[in-house]
Amino acid sequence: MIMLAENLGVKVFTATKAKERDALGNQITNWLREANGIELISKQTTQSSDNEYHCLTVTIVYKKS
Asked: In angstroms, how far is the first alpha carbon of the chain from the final one?
């Protein structure tokens, strides 16, 4: 099966501050509820840090139906 790029989408959620990181799960859940007719292809969670900040990123690749 060949999947055309026009049928794929990428959504990136990111948060740096603690309060934003705490709310990230709800933000992703709300987006998934509103994104009718998609099929999740992959998801990746990445964390990066420096001396002051901790960035959390969730990347979702999905197929549009």
From this structure: 15
Indicate the residue type of 60: I
58/43 Cα distance (integer angstroms): 7
The residue ranges of every structural domain in the chain are 5-64
Segment (H or E) for 25: helix 18-34
CATH says 5-64 is which class? alpha beta
Distances (CA, A) of 16 to 10, 36, 49, 58: 20, 28, 9, 12
4-59 per-position pLDDT tens digit: 567 899 999 999 999 999 999 999 999 999 998 899 999 999 999 988 889 999 99
Distance CA 5, CA 50 (A): 35
